[in-house]
Each structure stands twice: as C-alpha cells, then as structure tokens.
Amino acid sequence: MTSSLFAKFATGFVFACCALSLEVTGASAQAAKPPAPKPLHAGEVLSGELTAMRSGPRKKRMITYQLTSEPRRLPSPSGLCNLETGPETFQIVTKSDAEAAALKPYIGKSVSLKADEMSCAAEAGQFSDAIVSKWSVVKH
Questions:
Q1: DSSP states of 6-40 as a string?
Q2: Quick check: helix, strand or coil at residue 1?
Q3: Residue pair 119/81 in contact by the 8 Å Cβ criterion
Q4: Rg (CA), the chain
Q5: Coil, strand or helix: which one is 97?
Q6: How far apart are CA 111 and CA 132, in angstroms?
Q7: pLDDT at 62 over 80
C-alpha cells in the first residue's frame, strides 16, 4: 500500500512539473516574440545608417545606397514585405547625379530621409528588403 501511495505521489509530482514546464515555456515564447514594427507611411522620416555598394559589370558599375533602420511596417499593399518583423534594410534609389551627390556625405553615417514612395523588393537583383524610390534628405 505504501508503494501504491508513493507511485501516485510520484506520478502527480511528475505531472505537475511537466505542466509547470509547459507554462514557463509558453510564457517565455510569448515574451520572446518581437514587438510589432512601427508603421512607416508615405512622407514620414526613415532614419538609420547609410551604406554604399558597387554593383554591375566593371565598365557600367553603379553605386547602390542602402539604409539600415529599425524594422518598419510599410503601408498596404506592401505590408510587412513577407517578413515577420518588417523590413530593416531599405535600398535608396537615385535617379540623378544630384541625388547621388546628396547622399554621398552621409555614407557610413546616420541619416534621416523623408520617404515618399516605398515598396517591397521584388526582383532577384535587389539587395534590400524594401525600396525607397522617392525621398529627400532631412536636415537636422
């Protein structure tokens, strides 16, 4: 009879430990979930570190600018760009030499850009999660 009581006690103890373990695991999984990214609407400021990369064949090399920021959620229809946390890297499209010259002093530094047109990266040749095609530098 003592062994039967011990078996019931041991089984109950193991069950309680497993249930407690599942509760702790579930709580830590919820705690580890990243916060929802802040939305980035057209005309808002996007800040981060600006980097430049050379791409293309040797004779026709282009400089591609990339801004690394905190995760941001793009407006619809782009949404999260098929990412759980939203895009963190934004390719900055330059359409003229003047736009490229405006970015050049900020390479390797923090910069703020007013992002007017954004979209998710859709082609294989794009280096970033999202693309900012219309922008202007915000003076501090």
A1: HHHHHHHHHHHHHHHHHHHHHHHHHHHSPPPPEE-
A2: coil
A3: no
A4: 25
A5: helix
A6: 14
A7: no
